[in-house]
Design a protein that fits this description.
Largest sheet: 4 strands, antiparallel
Shape: globular
Helix content: 25-40%
Strand order of the largest sheet: 4-5-1-6
Number of strands: 6
Length: about 150
């Protein structure tokens, strides 16, 4: 039905980021991001423009299936540090709340510096299975803005 289809199109996708493990700042970014998670635990927001009741923010969660260092050969490592995170905070809310504004500015800054990539979780999957080697040539036909290409390079 048409109205269901339109409602589905208007549903916001969960945001996700991937930490650039080849960056010298990856541990710094990871530790700061984990501190942001803690600061969001008591933050409330209205989940939709017509909602009457505020709900607690669901802090960003590690994407469990994404391997450490973005490589499948690290799946069984015991000391796994999260390299990819998903969060369900609506983008429109990130700019409105004082606590989340700081997170939003952090994400924008580190995305522009290349220390993180804002990338949908589903887009993180293909580079994991391609097994690209240094002597390979790759033509990424979906290279806008190039996050899968960056993941391959890392």
């Amino acid at each position: 039905d048409y109205s269901s289809c339109i409602a589905a199109f208007r549903t916001e996708l969960p945001s996700s980021i991937r930490i650039n493990e080849s960056s010298e700042f990856c541990d710094f970014v990871r530790s700061h991001f984990e501190r942001f998670r803690e600061s969001l635990k008591n933050v409330k927001y209205l989940p939709s423009p017509d909602a009457k009741t505020e709900v607690y923010v669901d802090p960003p969660q590690p994407i469990q299936w994404f391997p450490s260092k973005g490589r499948l050969d690290t799946l069984n490592e015991t000391s796994v540090k999260a390299s990819a995170w998903k969060f369900s905070i609506p983008r429109r809310f990130l700019k409105k709340n004082e606590t989340t504004q700081f997170l939003q500015k952090f994400l924008v800054l580190h995305n522009s510096l290349g220390t993180i990539s804002r990338q949908e979780a589903v887009s993180m999957i293909p580079p994991l299975f391609l097994d690209v080697q240094p002597h390979h040539y790759v033509l990424d036909m979906c290279a806008a803005p190039g996050s899968k290409t960056m993941q391959l390079i890392e």
